[in-house]
Amino acid sequence: MFLTKLQQEEKEAFLELAYLMATIDGKFSVFENPVIAKYKEEMDLEDYKIKGLAIDDILKVFKEERSKHIVLTEILRLVYSDGIVHENELESITLIKEHFGFDANKYANFKDWIEGIKELANYPEHE
User: Residue 12 maps to which CATH number?
Assistant: First the structure.
């Protein structure tokens, strides 16, 4: 949604983070795979090869407040895409939230917004 607003280095770091989050539960779900592909397409990084960077190294790349908001929003979308939030995903989200300096209220607002978007996307269309 907002990934085009990131700088090139941030886009690559985001892709690393997204892949890390998508595989943190030991498997790459059928729901997460299309999301990663969409991220690559949105950021014009279809040929990017994942390097497997550590989460701390990835998070250091994001310095601007706007970039941190974009990253948290998109990572929450990814995590909630399959409807199952694994314990490792929650731990990583907590790490991201703390590294970025987001308090509980700000995080709750992001989470609620993402859940609302997911509900809206799944709402049946009227004919």
Answer: 1.10.3680.10
